[in-house]
Write a structure and sequence with these properties.
By secondary structure, the chain is mostly helical. The protein is 67% helix and 0% strand. It has 14 helices and no strands. Helix 5 packs parallel to helix 8.
Length: 313
């Protein structure tokens, strides 16, 4: 059984005592009710997304993703630009789309069908790995899991961004099949695997963590920023007597994973990260960098001391 790691958080003795009494009750009653609640919510979201996929309501970037999968199904090793008749690569030529293209090539299915099905797979992975991460953060993680999932789905306010990378209930039926959702699942798995490694160091965990990090960088670099920022937070928060000895291999593993991602042949990760699109900035910066306060929904009400109105540096 994997031991649980509890970060050092400054709760008052009274809160800890009440939480401990709650844990004692849960041990008597069992944690089946919380597990049932977690998967009841998860299955409801999966059903909603499956219904959306069955109806074939495709919008936004879906058709560009489908074109990429179609091109990789036809020419998996030497693809051409999926939209234009030019000798150029494409930023979506990632392992995620390549795997979907190979599935279409082998099974003879359409890119539309492959993307529809993989959306359900992505969401299932997100729910599995979210539960895995939360239950490793604390011995009472199974108590928090259903509440965490509900907050992730609805704690966004009335005008949340319906873009990839935002896992609320309005956006998920549209973005579940996008690489950002798969990368979110990889991020959750990577963080939980790091917690396992810090508790019981194993070489295979470092290898898998490195592969997951490299894959996340290629599948969705924006989500990879969240992963790369979260890894040192976990390392600093979860400490032990031999913390440095366990942290150094993790840092080296992430560095090697980054080098492996840079070597991906279908597009240049460095160029993708370094290139700045004026058109993209013009469209997204007013919405993301300086969002109206009400877009933060309940999060702003719950954290009144946090200034959510970001400004352009």
């Amino acid at each position: 059984m994997t031991p649980h790691l509890t970060p050092h958080v400054g709760f008052s003795p009274g809160i800890l005592a009440r939480f401990q009494r709650r844990l004692d009750v849960e041990r008597l009653l069992g944690n089946g009710s919380h597990l049932f609640a977690y998967w009841a919510v998860s299955l409801t979201v999966l059903l909603l997304c499956a219904l959306r996929a069955y109806r074939g309501h495709w919008v936004g970037d879906f058709f560009e993703h489908a074109a990429v999968v179609r091109e990789l199904a036809r020419h998996p090793w030497h693809p051409q630009h999926p939209l234009l008749v030019v000798q150029s690569t494409h930023a979506f030529f990632s392992p995620y789309h390549l795997a979907l293209g190979l599935v279409c090539r082998w099974l003879g299915c359409s890119p539309f069908s492959a993307l529809a099905v993989v959306g359900i797979v992505n969401l299932t992975l997100v729910f599995l790995f979210l539960h895995r991460l939360i239950t490793r953060l604390s011995v009472g993680g199974h108590l928090a899991a259903p509440y965490a999932l509900i907050f992730i789905l609805v704690f966004w306010g009335s005008e949340a961004w319906s873009w990839s990378g935002f896992l609320h209930w309005v956006a998920l039926p549209y973005v579940a099949r996008y690489p950002s959702t798969f990368a979110a699942a990889l991020t959750l798995l990577s963080l939980s695997l790091l917690l396992d490694h810090l508790a019981q160091p194993r070489l295979w965990r470092l290898v898998v963590l490195g592969l997951l990090t490299s894959l996340t960088l290629l599948v969705h670099p924006t989500t990879a920023v969240v992963l790369l920022a979260s890894l040192p937070v976990v390392l600093v928060t979860v400490r032990g007597p031999d913390w440095i000895r366990r942290a150094v291999p993790v840092v080296l593993t992430v560095a090697l994973a980054t080098a492996l991602a840079i070597a991906w042949p279908h597009f240049s990760l460095l160029s993708l990260v370094a290139t700045r699109s004026p058109d993209f900035d013009k469209e997204t910066r007013p919405t993301l960098v300086a969002p109206p306060p009400w877009r933060c929904g309940g999060a702003r009400k719950a954290s009144p001391n946090v200034d959510w109105h970001l400004t352009d540096p």
